[in-house]
């Protein structure tokens, strides 16, 4: 009921301050409506019932709204008296009441429905309750004049209440609108869905129903009596568990099934009239596609498909001349919001297109592959003239799938000329000509005798399309040509084997400038393998390198390496302190730290070998010595410890005897794979639990020291070996 507090013949009691005395109430005349905020009205200091007793006797009173009608144990007598007074207003035609309970629902005086049944002249009844109250079988027996009914329940109602209320409503001959809904928004359980028996015991009397709303009720079925409601034009069934409609509903104009997860859309469309249905809402349903017969529903103005699993849109939408609203979430960006599709439909409805052409335009716009599979490439070519960019782009995408790539089995020199129409995505005509010229492929602007293939792209004119259709030459799309040229330009060294890359590395780290020059020429022509990138960086950093060779190396580096790394190298290339170089490179997010570490090991291999003792030279291939080589290039910071460990994470033996152990255990590097560890015995004695990070440790090497330290170490080891029984300890000389 609308708020009538400002009307001349209306009363509004929203607080204690607005209450009047019984004497004042008795003197009032021509009162038509009352609105009451009941939560305070039963208080003893303001005997509202005495005032209400005087007001309900007015024959002019036709509308009452009661908010927060709250039953409570403390005021039960006053509450029941108010309800009795309310049900005595014989002139009442409109009642809006919200009811809450703080007393047991099974208490007979609280049967609100039964008491309101006495209002024989009631035409509009709106009830909002918190719980599913028990109801009698003859619920609305006397409400024969009721035209509009609304019941809202705050929680999910009991199935018995829902079926009983709805079955009672179907027996009211004057009922035109009815709503039964739950305000609760929890997920529905289809296993506990409410159903109606097929035989309801005779025909319904509510044949004048024109609007039905059943929301959040977990209905699995609708009352079969609905099929007899010949005036039913609006059916809102949001958030239920409905699969089918009960039968043919020819007059329904607006059908909302939003939130019914498992609807049978084919069955539902057979139950509504294609010449009548104006709006269809099947959002949040498990609908994967609209059936082709949707094109028969020529009265449709709005379709809502949000939050569905829809993957395909039928081309038959072109027949819906009245469709002005299309709301959908689709993977294809063109139709995601629906508005672009509506614009397209308006465009293709022009008389200049045939029925089949309209279907093709919609099909490529919506990428309906089922339809496009049966359409030839020549039939799609005219679509390149459509003045909608998305249609042209999608047409090219479809053509690419239909055209066999002519380059797969061809030699570069045998391609001859290509007829160029329009432009190509992602590359200018000038760049394309330069690329083609490099590989002896000639581009022509029109069809000539030299033409061996036809290249199609954007901006194709109708005349050019006709030439393409008349020609028997193979078609090539711009994307195909671009991909082919990139394939021809792919550097051969990028896919070279390990042996080739090893030889290339040896040339780069050579002391002979000629060898380095040869390696740079090979990289410049054949590409830069990822594994050699940082070796090339270190070549550029050498101060003693020949200036011409260094310049060439920098040119090659700039050709293949990211601008971020080049910027770092340019800042530090005159430095000879490799520790500073490593730190600067390490801080760059563009640097692959593992590859950089390997490059350092390779680059300094010869230098390290020359200063090693004979014993070390015999062990030069061992992983431990290689790791030492890297460690001596680093400082003792935690960051460098991380760098050292991560770069050689495959090694299983760590020689950390020359660095403090806390640098190792404080690093973020993974230590689970370490099986052998060499450390100073003093480090082992000082730490309470120095090896907690080495979960896979099998052998511990401790350098021998004075007797006192060795005794302390043995005591610690006995305790450690109780927790790690597989651990072996070796005291090194």
Automatic annotation (TrEMBL):
Tell me where on the tree of life, at the top rank, the source sits: Bacteria
Please give the coiled-coil regions recorded for this protein.
none
Short name of one Pfam family: BRCT
**All copies of domain BRCT, residue ranges:** 418-477
- InterPro entries in the cross-refs: BRCT_dom, BRCT_dom_sf, Leu-rich_rpt, LRR_dom_sf
Instruction: Report TM segments.
Output: none
Protein name (record): BRCT domain-containing protein
Originating species: Xanthocytophaga flava
Show the taxonomic lineage: Bacteria, Pseudomonadati, Bacteroidota, Cytophagia, Cytophagales
């Amino acid at each position: 009921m609308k708020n009538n507090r400002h009307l001349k013949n209306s009363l509004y009691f929203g607080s204690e301050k607005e209450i009047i005395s019984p004497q004042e109430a008795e003197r009032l005349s021509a009162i038509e409506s009352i609105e009451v905020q009941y939560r305070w009205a039963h208080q003893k200091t303001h005997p509202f019932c005495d005032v209400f007793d005087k007001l309900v006797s007015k024959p002019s009173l036709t509308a009452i709204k009661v908010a927060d009608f709250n039953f409570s144990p403390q005021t039960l007598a006053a509450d029941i008296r108010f309800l009795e007074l309310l049900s005595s207003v014989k002139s009442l035609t409109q009642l809006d009441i919200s009811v809450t309970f703080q007393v047991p629902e099974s208490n007979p005086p609280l049967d609100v429905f039964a008491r309101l049944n006495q209002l024989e002249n009631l035409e509009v009844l709106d009830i909002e309750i918190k719980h599913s109250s028990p109801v009698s079988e003859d619920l609305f027996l006397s409400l024969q004049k009721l035209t509009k009914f609304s019941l809202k329940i705050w929680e999910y109602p009991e199935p018995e209440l829902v079926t009983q209320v709805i079955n009672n409503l179907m027996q009211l001959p004057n009922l035109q609108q009815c709503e039964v809904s739950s305000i609760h928004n929890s997920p529905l359980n289809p296993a506990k869905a409410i159903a109606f028996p097929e035989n309801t015991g005779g025909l319904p009397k509510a044949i004048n129903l024109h609007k039905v709303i059943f929301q959040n009720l977990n209905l699995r079925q609708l009352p079969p009596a609905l099929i007899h409601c010949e005036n039913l034009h609006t059916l809102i069934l949001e958030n239920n568990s409905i699969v089918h409609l009960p039968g043919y509903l020819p007059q329904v104009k607006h059908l909302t099934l939003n939130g019914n997860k498992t609807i049978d859309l084919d069955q539902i469309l057979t139950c509504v009239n294609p010449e009548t249905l104006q709006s269809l809402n099947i959002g949040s349903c498990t609908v994967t596609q609209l059936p082709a017969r949707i094109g028969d529903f020529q009265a449709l103005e709005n379709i809502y498909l949000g939050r569905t699993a829809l993957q395909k849109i039928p081309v038959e939408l072109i027949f819906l001349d009245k469709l002005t609203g299309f709301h959908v979430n689709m993977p294809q960006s063109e139709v995601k919001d629906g508005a672009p599709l509506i614009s397209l439909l308006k465009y293709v409805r022009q008389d200049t297109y045939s029925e089949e052409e309209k279907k093709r335009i919609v099909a490529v716009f919506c990428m309906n592959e089922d339809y496009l599979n049966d359409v030839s490439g020549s039939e799609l070519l005219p679509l390149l003239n459509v003045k909608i960019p998305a249609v042209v782009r999608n047409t090219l995408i479809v053509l690419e799938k239909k055209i066999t790539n002519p380059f797969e089995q061809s030699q570069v020199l045998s391609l001859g000329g290509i007829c160029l129409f329009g432009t190509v995505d992602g590359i200018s005509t000038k760049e394309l000509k330069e690329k083609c010229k490099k590989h002896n492929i000639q581009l022509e602007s029109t069809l000539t005798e030299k033409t061996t293939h036809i290249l199609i792209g954007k901006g194709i004119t109708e005349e050019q399309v006709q030439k393409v259709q008349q020609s028997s030459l193979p078609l090539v799309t711009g994307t195909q040509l671009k991909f082919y040229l990139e394939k021809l330009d792919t550097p051969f060294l990028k896919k070279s084997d390990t042996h080739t890359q090893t030889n290339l590395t040896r040339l780069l780290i050579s002391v002979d400038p000629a060898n380095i020059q040869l390696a740079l020429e090979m990289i410049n022509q054949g590409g830069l393998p990822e594994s050699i990138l940082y070796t090339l960086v270190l070549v550029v950093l050498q101060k003693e390198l020949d200036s011409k060779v260094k310049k060439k190396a920098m040119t090659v580096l700039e050709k293949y390496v990211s601008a971020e790394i080049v910027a770092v190298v340019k800042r530090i290339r005159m430095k000879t302190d490799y520790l500073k170089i490593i730190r600067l490179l390490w801080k760059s997010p563009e640097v692959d730290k593992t590859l950089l570490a390997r490059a350092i090991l390779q680059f300094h291999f010869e230098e390290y070998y020359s200063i090693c003792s004979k014993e070390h030279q015999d062990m030069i291939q061992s992983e431990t010595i290689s790791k030492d080589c890297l460690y001596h290039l680093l400082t003792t910071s935690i960051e460098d410890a991380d760098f050292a460990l991560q770069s050689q994470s495959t090694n299983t033996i760590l020689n950390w005897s020359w660095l403090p152990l806390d640098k190792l255990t404080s690093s973020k590097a993974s230590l689970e794979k370490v099986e052998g560890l060499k450390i100073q015995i003093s480090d082992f004695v000082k730490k309470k639990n120095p090896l907690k990070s080495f979960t896979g440790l099998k052998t511990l090497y401790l350098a021998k020291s004075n007797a006192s330290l060795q005794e302390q170490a043995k005591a610690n080891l006995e305790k450690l070996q109780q927790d790690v029984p597989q651990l072996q300890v070796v005291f090194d000389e």
